[in-house]
UniProtKB/TrEMBL annotation:
Gene source species: Williamsia phyllosphaerae
Superkingdom as given in the UniProt entry: Bacteria
Family named by the database record: Belongs to the tellurite-resistance/dicarboxylate transporter (TDT) family.
Name of this protein: C4-dicarboxylate ABC transporter
Principal subcellular localization: membrane
Length: 374
């Protein structure tokens, strides 16, 4: 099945799925529903301005993301148990295999939300423990996904299939590990272990940066040569923004976290890392403005002629959410209030996009146009 056909089969214009077979097509991109919901909560935690009631709303959204993670994970496990042939087919699919980065990012996002919001409900110790477990699981899946895709690129005759932006899904996960790992650093009691963990987070940053940069260059070069994705895949043009926003967040938050690890005669290391993160954020932020403008233009043109609903619409959520966290971190690091204002505007857009996409997804599941995830 081609990527375009697969995406079309997941749109709300497709025929109803027979109830007993609704677990036959629980592809890994179902985890984008968890990612997109979780980022609404975690992005709220970084808000540059206080908004009455937002913390409560974000906590509720985090709970929804946690429930969604359990439901989708259960459905995905059942999919592998009951429909192994389909599951292996999706694993070997040149494009769908890239979405195995989604389960990793779903776990990492919910884990970060647990630390940020769950501590008020279950206590700090339990929240740290749960986040650590989810971070470990998400990071392991993300690294394996990157390695798996890298091997496929070297061994497949078609070099991994169509050059769609969805290819980015397999390389962003380690960057999410880097940024969410920064939240865990202060909660590690042993000083040596904190330093080792911080270095590990920077390793995740570099791994994602190298593969992400190469993939981004390949995807955009391919789109320039052969044209934009098919209508059903147009929302995926937002995915590269996930790498941009998440890398800015990681570079700055890891630099901030390093201040507690490199002190005294080694304070210059923390200063250098923080400064490098800030300047990285400025440069990549400018690139992000261009990419955001391009994404809006492409999407608007596609929407004018009709943009069918599919799971790819969740690309309107998580990438924008990482832009919120990246802009907030950059505004704080540079002291430029205008960047914080951008973060606030982006969060409003994120929340609206999430509300629309979540409602459309629930409606599509209830109507049978999308396979049920539970």
């Amino acid at each position: 099945m081609t990527t375009t056909a697969l995406l079309n089969s997941m749109s709300d214009e497709s025929v109803d799925v027979v109830p007993r077979d609704r677990l036959a097509h629980i592809t890994p991109n179902w985890f984008t529903t968890v990612m997109g919901t979780g980022i609404v909560a975690t992005a709220a935690a970084t808000r540059p301005a206080h908004v009455t009631g937002l913390h409560t709303v974000a906590t509720v959204v985090w709970i929804l993301a946690s429930v969604a993670l359990l439901l989708v994970s259960s459905a995905f496990a059942a999919h592998w148990l009951m429909h192994r042939e389909n599951a292996r087919g999706y694993l070997n699919h040149a494009m769908v295999s890239h979405f195995y980065g989604a389960p990793a990012m779903a776990a990492l996002t919910v884990g970060a939300g647990t630390l940020l919001f769950g501590k008020d409900l279950i206590g700090v110790d339990a929240a740290v423990w749960i986040d650590a477990v989810l971070w470990t699981i998400g990071t392991a899946i993300g690294v394996v996904a990157v390695g798996f895709v890298a091997v496929r690129l070297l061994t497949r005759a078609d070099r991994g299939g169509e050059a769609l932006p969805a290819r980015m899904m397999s390389v962003v996960a380690p960057m999410v590990s880097a940024s969410t790992g920064a939240l865990l650093v202060p909660h590690i009691a042993d000083a040596d272990m904190r330093t080792v963990f911080l270095v590990l987070c920077y390793a995740m940053f570099l791994l994602s940066f190298v593969f992400g940069t190469a993939t981004t260059f390949f995807v955009y070069r391919r789109m320039i040569r052969v044209g934009l994705p098919a209508r059903a895949a147009v929302p995926t043009v937002w995915i590269p923004l996930g790498m941009i926003g998440q890398s800015i967040t990681a570079a700055i938050t890891l630099g901030t976290a390093s201040r507690g690890e490199f002190t005294g005669t080694h304070a210059y290391v923390a200063t250098g890392l923080h400064t490098a993160g800030m300047y990285y954020g400025i440069v990549v932020g400018i690139i992000g403005v261009v990419a955001f403008t391009l994404s809006v233009t492409i999407t608007a043109r596609a929407a004018y002629t009709g943009l069918p609903f599919s799971l790819t619409w969740w690309s309107f959520t998580f990438p924008v959410g990482t832009c919120v966290t990246g802009a907030t971190a950059l505004g704080t690091a540079t002291g430029i209030g205008a960047i914080h204002d951008v973060a606030i505007v982006l969060y409003v857009l994120l929340f609206c996009a999430w509300a629309v996409v979540a409602a459309r997804t629930v409606a599509a599941i209830r109507s049978g146009a999308l396979p049920a995830a539970a």
